């Protein structure tokens, strides 16, 4: 657990510095990273980022003002607002990832087999859900 905590601390610090280099807070950068996977409803973003919906609104307002995201009404429920990354938002999200030198350097010290194993283990621990 301690090594996992240290690893996450290094990653988060690296991410925070990279986001700041793009004049973003860590929360704004994380929102872009999540949206890099595809559009998301405001509520889903708030849940993913574990923040209050009103805080998520402020984060998205600031990103939208910079032209990094846009909001669209959901096709099936006009009350739901989906957030979509713009081309500039994609560029900034990619720039953040590219500037994470500490993380990239650490991962580059692993061979392909070790990176694959790490991916598999992290997916098993944090993503996969055991069937009930």
Report on the architecture of this protein.
This protein is mainly alpha-helical and 132 residues long. The chain has 7 helices and 3 strands; from the N terminus they run H-H-E-H-H-E-E-H-H-H. A 3-stranded antiparallel β-sheet has the order 1-3-2. Helix 3 packs across helix 4 (53-65).
Brief summary of the model shown:
The chain is mainly α and 132 residues long. The chain has helices at residues 2-21, 26-35, 42-48, 53-65, 87-98, 101-108, 112-126, and strands at residues 40-41, 69-73, 81-85. Strands 1-3-2 form a three-stranded antiparallel beta sheet.
The beta-strand count equals 3
Average of pLDDT: 92
Which stretches are poorly predicted, pLDDT < 50 over at least 5 residues?
Answer: none
**Basic shape:** globular
Beta-strand percentage range? 5-15%
Task: State the helical fraction.
Answer: 55-70%
Distance between the termini: 26 Å
Secondary-structure element sequence? HHEHHEEHHH
Major beta sheet summary: 3 strands, antiparallel
- Our Rg estimate from Cα atoms comes to 16 Å
Alpha-beta content class: mainly alpha
Main β-sheet, spatial strand arrangement: 1-3-2
**Helix count, DSSP H or I runs of 4 or more residues:** 7
């Amino acid at each position: 657990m301690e090594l996992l905590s240290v690893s996450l601390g290094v990653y988060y610090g690296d991410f925070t510095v990279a986001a700041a280099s793009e004049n973003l807070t860590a929360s704004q950068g994380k929102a872009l990273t999540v949206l890099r996977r595809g559009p998301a409803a405001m509520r889903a973003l708030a849940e993913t980022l574990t923040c209050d919906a009103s805080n998520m609104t402020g984060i998205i307002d600031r990103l939208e003002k910079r032209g990094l995201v846009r909001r669209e009404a959901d096709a099936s429920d006009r009350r739901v607002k989906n957030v979509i990354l713009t081309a500039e938002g994609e560029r900034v999200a990619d720039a953040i990832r590219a500037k994470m030198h500490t993380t990239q350097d650490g991962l580059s010290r692993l061979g392909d087999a070790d990176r694959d194993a790490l991916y598999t283990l992290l997916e098993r621990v944090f993503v996969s859900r055991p069937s009930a």
